[in-house]
Amino acid sequence: MTMFTRSLMKAISERPPQLEKKLRGRTLPTKAILVLCMLSFFFGLLFSGNMWVTPLQKRESNGLITSSINDPKLSLITHRFGEGEQRDIIGEVSKTHQAIQSLDKSISALEMELAVARTSQSASSTEGSKLKRLEKEKGIVLRFVIGHSATPGGVLDRAIDAEDAETKDFLRLDHVEGYHELSMKTKIYFSTAVAIWDADFYVKVDDDVHVNLGMLITTLARYRTKPRVYIGCMKSGPVLSQKGVRYHEPEFWKFGEEGNKYFRHATGQIYAISKDLAAYISINAPILHRFANEDVSLGSWLIGLEVEHVDDKTMCCGTPPDCEWKTQAGNVCIASFDWTCSGICKSVERMKDVHNNCGEGDGAVWNVVL
User: Fold this and answer.
1) How high is the pLDDT of residue 114?
2) How far out from the chain centre does Cα 10 lie?
3) Which of 247, 261, 252, 241 is nearest to 179 (CA)?
4) Predicted TM-score (pTM) of this structure
5) pLDDT of residue 232
6) 3-class SS letters over 199-221
7) Part of which pathway (predicted)?
8) Residue 292 three-state SS
9) Cis before residue 321, ω within 30 degrees of 0?
10) Are 259 and 238 in contact, with CB atoms under 8 Å apart?
11) How far is it, in rounded angstroms, from Cα 305 to Cα 265?
12) Residue 177, helix vs strand vs coil
C-alpha cells in the first residue's frame, strides 16, 4: 500500500462524527468508487516511483532505484526509469568530455600564439639591437620607408604604427601611397632623409630585392670624396606611348619620335645618390617635374647637372644560378633580383634561399673598413 493510499484511509477513518452521520445514509455510486480507486493507484504509483523508496525497493550507489520483488510489471517500470537516467548521465558526461576537448584545443592554440609572439618579440628585439649597433659603429641607418593610406588613421596605418613602436625601423612620410605616386614618394623620401640624417650617400632599395650590405657599403666608400655621384645599373629603356600597358608614359611626346628611348638613368630596384644631390632635390622639390616612372623622374632631375653616372652591374645580378655562380667565383653581387618581376619573383618564399646561395655572410658588414 502506498503512502498516498494510507494517508487517504487515515483521513477517512479520522473524519468527524458529524460527517460520518451524513455519509451513513448515502451510498457512493459504483463509478465514483472505481474512479477514486484508480486515482488512488496512479497517484500512489507517481509518488512512489519518483519520491519514495518503499521497503521493497533499495537505492543503488549509482542513484538508480531497483526492486527487490519479482513482479514483472514493477520490474519493467523501474528498469525503464533507470535506463532513462543512465542515458541522461551518459549524455552529460559526453557533453562535458567534448567541452574539455574544445578547451584543450583553445589552450593549445593560445600557447602556440604566445610562443610565436615571444619568438617575434625576441627577433624584433635582436633586429633592433643590430640596427642600433649599425648606426653607432658603422654610421649605417636602415629604415622601411612608407607613407600612409588614403584614409589616414585606418586599420593599415594603425598596424604600421604598432609595428613601428615595437621595431623602430620605419621612416614615415607625409605621403599617400599608390603605384602612380612613386615619383612623388621618391622626391619626399630624399627631402625627408637629408633633413634627418647627415650622410654621405642616400640609397633607395625595393623590399623584394636581395642586398649584400657589406658589398654596398664598400662600393659607396670608393666614391665618398667625389661630388655629385649617381650610382646604379644604368639603362635607357623604350618610351611606351601605348595606353594600358605597364610603364606607359603619358608624356611620351617629350622624348621625340615614337620608338625613342629614355636618357640614361639607374634602374628603380636600387640606386644611390650623394649628399649634395639629395640636398639639391630637397631644395628644388616644388619645381622638379614628375614623369610616370620614378626611376625616369630621378634621372630627369639629374640629367642636366654636372653629375657622375656610375654604371655598376653588380647592383642588378639575377637570382640563382646567376648570383650563385658569381659568388662562388668571388664576385659577390651588391643586389640580386629577377627582371621579369622587377624584383625577386615570389620574394616571401624565395628570399631566404637567395640569401643562402648568394649572400656575402652575416658578418661581412661588420668587417667593412670605412
Assistant:
1) 60
2) 79
3) 247
4) 0.66
5) 98
6) CCEEEEECCCCEECHHHHHHHHH
7) Protein modification; protein glycosylation
8) coil
9) yes
10) yes
11) 13
12) coil
Exposure class string for 34-54: b at 16+ Cβ within 10 A, else e: eeeeeebeeebeeebbeeeee
Which grid coordinates belong to 197?
640624417
148-182 residue pLDDT tens: 988 878 888 899 999 998 888 999 999 988 878 89
CB atoms within 10 A of CB 271: 25
Which residues in the chain land under pLDDT 50? 1-26, 47, 49-81
Tell me, what's the pLDDT at 108?
Answer: 66
Question: 301-343 pLDDT, tens per residue?
Answer: 999 999 999 999 999 999 999 999 999 999 999 999 999 999 9
Spatial neighbors of 334 by CB under 8 A, at least 6 apart, are: 211, 212, 215, 216, 219, 270, 312, 314, 315, 317
- For every residue of 32-58, DSSP letters joined together read HHHHHHHHHHHHHHHHHHHT---TTEE
Q: For residues 325 and 317, is the Cβ–Cβ distance under 8 A?
A: no
| Longest distance between any two alpha carbons in the chain, whole Å | 139
- Grid cell, residue 194, equals 637629408
Helices 294-302 and 182-196: angle between axes, nearest 10 degrees = 60
Q: How far apart are CA 198 and CA 274, in angstroms?
A: 11
Strand partners, 175: none
